[in-house]
Write a structure and sequence with these properties.
- By secondary structure, the protein is α/β, with parallel strands linked by helices.
- It has one domain (28-326): Alpha-Beta Barrel (TIM Barrel), CATH 3.20.20.70.
- It has eleven helices and twelve strands.
- The protein has helices at residues 18-24, 61-73, 101-113, 145-162, 176-186, 207-212, 233-245, 259-268, 279-290, 296-309, 320-326; strands at residues 34-41, 48-49, 57-59, 78-84, 118-123, 136-137, 143-144, 166-169, 193-200, 249-253, 273-276, 314-316.
- The strands form two sheets. Strands 1-4-5-8-9-10-11-12 form an eight-stranded parallel β-barrel, surrounded by eight helices.
- Helix 4 crosses helix 5 and helix 5 (176-186) packs parallel to helix 7 (233-245).
- The longest helix is centred in the middle third of the chain and has 18 residues, at 145-162.
- It is globular.
- Bound molecules: ligand PBG.
- Ligand PBG is lined by residues 122, 124, 126, 170, 206, 209-210, 222, 278-279.
């Protein structure tokens, strides 16, 4: 065998022990990078399991407080709340009702947790409207952009009044970040941040979430406002618009099938970039693991590490508390 005269690079040298691998790891995952999405439902006496998301429940106000406490205790970086009202109507009136479920839940958590973790609220109408769309629907079934912005502005103020540190507009209406920023500032909430769901794709991976949040559209789909999975440049355009309108952080969603988008956005902007590992990503792994087809714990860490490697500073994941405890 011909050995080289000079030592050649041997990448395996740095892989021989766990300690060496840890020393040279390029990507880290910490509890503070993770944000836990939580569902809270009005008018239920017990937490309700979500069939398509084993391990995830729709919380009561009380069970939410416990889950939020556990997450904060585990060092999770943030929580994002989704509310499911008892009564829905065409304009999503419960979304900005000061006594609406999310506002009450935010107030509970703000008083329990203070600044121990970051309290976020998803800002959309689809969980609150009887038709399941993200905005005001015209007679012909299309969504009226600017009338919807007025609703979002009012919801943002209600959520900030409730105690949200961050609002996360997820409806993909044009101009939503600007409308919300203006309304927050006018209401004295200059310090409330906006995490813009800037590049949210029209994805089939949201299926299980729509069970959890009870927000599936009764007719049509969301393709007129969410992004076409075929597009990447458009993601950059959306992000730039949101930043110009005053977004403090931007998000790419879903994560795993859009890691190229995460990378591109992370390279383009200087603000924190979040990625949402959505319900379908969670459900796939849980379903395969339940069948014994995947090593659940390893797959979860690998998936989250990949999202961080792609450039996400923050990862929204339904496994946040569990993973934070394991790290
Ligand atoms: C809309 C919203 C959705 C998700 C987060 N916010 C669903 C949708 O656009 O239909 C999906 C999250 C997930 O799938 O985990 N309010």
């Amino acid at each position: 065998m011909n050995l080289p005269e000079f030592p050649v690079s041997r990448p395996r040298r740095l892989r021989r022990s766990r300690a060496l691998r840890r020393l040279v790891a390029e990507t880290s995952l910490a509890p503070s990078d993770l944000v836990l999405p939580l569902f809270v439902k009005e008018g239920i006496a017990e937490p309700q399991p979500v069939g398509s998301m084993p391990g995830v429940v729709q919380h009561t106000r009380d069970s939410l407080r416990k889950a939020a406490f556990d997450a904060a205790q585990a060092g999770v970086g943030g929580l994002i709340l989704f509310g499911i009202p008892a009564v829905k109507d065409a304009r999503g009136s419960a979304a900005d009702d000061p006594d609406g479920i999310v506002q009450l839940a935010l107030a509970d958590l703000a008083s329990d947790l203070g600044d121990a973790t970051v309290l976020m609220a998803d800002l959309c109408l689809c969980e609150y409207t009887d038709h399941g769309h993200c905005g005001i629907v015209r007679d012909d079934g299309t969504i009226e952009n600017d009338a919807t912005l007025e609703r979002y502005a009012s919801v943002a103020v209600a959520q900030a009044n409730g105690g949200a540190h961050v609002v996360g507009p997820s409806g993909m209406m044009d101009g939503q970040v600007g409308a919300i920023r203006t309304a927050l500032d006018a209401a004295g909430h200059q310090d409330t941040s906006i995490l813009a769901y800037s590049t949210k794709y029209a994805s089939a991976f949201y299926g299980p979430f729509r069970d959890a949040a009870e927000g599936a559209p009764r007719f049509g789909d969301r393709a007129s406002h969410q992004q076409d999975p075929a597009n990447l440049d458009e993601a950059v355009r959306e992000v730039r618009l949101d930043l110009a309108e005053g977004a403090d952080m931007v998000m790419v969603k879903p994560a795993m099938t859009y890691l190229d988008v995460v990378r591109r956005v992370a390279d383009e902007v200087e603000v924190p970039v979040a990625a949402y590992q959505v319900s379908g990503e969670y459900a796939m792994v849980e379903a395969a693991a339940a069948n014994g087809w995947l090593d659940r714990d390893r797959v979860i860490l690998e998936a989250l590490t990949s999202i961080r490697r792609a450039g996400a500073d923050i990862v929204l994941t339904y496994w946040a508390t569990e993973v934070a405890r394991r790290l």
